[in-house]
Design goal:
The protein is of the alpha/beta class and 311 residues long. The protein has a single domain, classed as Spore Coat Polysaccharide Biosynthesis Protein SpsA, Chain A, CATH 3.90.550.10. It is 33% helix and 26% strand. The protein is built from eleven helices and 13 strands. Strands 1, 2, 3, 4, 5, 6, 7, 8, 9, 10 and 13 form an eleven-stranded mixed beta sheet that branches. Strands 11-12 form a two-stranded antiparallel sheet. The chain starts with a helix and ends in a 5-residue tail after the last strand.
Length: 311
Amino acid sequence: MTKDQMQKMLLSTPIDTMFPIFIPSYLRAGKSATLNKLIIPNFSTEALKRIYVVVRPEQYKEYKKAYPQINILTLTGEIKGLASTRQWICDFAAANRMPYIIDMDDDITQLRFLYSGVSGSGNACSKLSTKDDGLEMNILAVASGVCRGLFKNYPDALYGNIRRRRMSMGEENALVKYQIQSGPTPRQVTFINIKGLKRMGVERDMIFEPHGDDIGFAAVVLSASGQCFNLPSFAYDYVDEKCDSVVRTPANSKRLHKYEYDMLMTYPIKDYLRTSFRDIEGNYMWGDIDWSKFHKLQGTKRIKIKWEGCL
């Protein structure tokens, strides 16, 4: 996709194509980067109606005062962490006949689109749009439209995302519309097939309540013969968790990362988990799906669908 082609598609896609967006948030009333930097300054009044911030009941008044223009939902039932919060969101969406949703962290700072370009050394690459290009809500509208077609053609595709900005410069990314059982582990800006989850009886596992809900849910989806996916032509950036985490602290970080790893070892993902980052002592910090190992074990292949006109 050239920059002009991508911009034309973004500007011509109706905003009501965008899935409802759910943002679980905790202790960040007035401080959410997603709302303050990304959504409120750049979304139209109509687009703002599709935003739902999900908070603990005791924090409702504080969030409503900080964001009077946004729908604020209060959690009900026994909620202990992100796994139960996100399961509540999925149940709420299903009960309100929302077949597909976006689940977005509350610390996202940027959304960008990718387009085909040439690097300074003359090699083909993917380039990122700049802050001045804007189009944040348009990006989510187009991404939602892509997912709607993906879910129609591949109904077992349940859980996917766009790319982190620092992982986005590969030449092929700007050419690919979506890829299934390939690409980054879904995190932070995720697209969820609620209809498919309910049809297949897939729910989050509360063992990942203390930590690891994102990759934990990928493990759950894959163990239930569901599919994960990625939209490589769109990217996001976020607040560095080392600076602004409400979950991890220097005192508990090592324990939480070990807990995540131990829980992942109870799922088939143990056979195709790649350790992406370790601490200075060599202990597990973050993991990702090793799709090469996955396909070798399953006897399957990646699926890549390119934008029309991209060979």
